[in-house]
Design a protein that fits this description.
This protein is α/β, with parallel strands linked by helices. It has a single domain, classed as Rossmann fold. It contains seven helices and four strands; from the N terminus they run αβαβααβαβαα. The protein has a two-stranded parallel sheet with strand order 1-2. A two-stranded parallel sheet has the order 3-4. The radius of gyration is 14 Å and the shape is globular. It starts with a helix and ends with a helix. The C terminus is likely disordered.
């Protein structure tokens, strides 16, 4: 999936993480360089606002200077998906890697199958 993030960034698309993790996310970055695959990382631990608060989607879109209707939010929690959708974001409810890859192609038809289906 990180290769997909790199491909999207290569297409000029802003890619960000919105996470409800603690400083654990930063520990992962220190050991793996995870954040280098993203333009921005928003961590509720630092923001003091989580995905349970629908206004977080407005806040992140404003900071990214992105119209919510042009933002795509991916999450495995259907409640987070509903809140994001309620704020006007496009969404993908992550239920499996294959489903995610298929849905991602709907939003980014310019990606080659090698970019949308790494390792296949």
């Amino acid at each position: 999936m990180l290769a997909q993030m790199d491909s999207l960034r290569g297409m000029g698309i802003v890619v960000a993480i919105l996470s409800d993790q603690t400083n654990w996310l930063e520990e992962i970055d220190r050991s793996t360089g995870l954040f280098s695959h993203f333009d921005r990382v928003f961590n509720s631990y630092r923001m003091k606002k989580s995905k349970r608060d629908a206004s977080v989607f407005d806040y992140v879109c404003a900071l990214l200077d992105v119209d919510p209707q042009k933002a795509l939010f991916v999450d495995d929690n259907i409640n987070h998906i509903a809140r994001a959708r309620g704020r006007g974001l496009c969404t993908i409810h992550f239920v499996s890697v294959e489903d995610y890859k298929n849905q991602l192609k709907n939003y980014f038809p310019g990606m080659t199958s090698a970019e949308t289906l790494p390792g296949q």
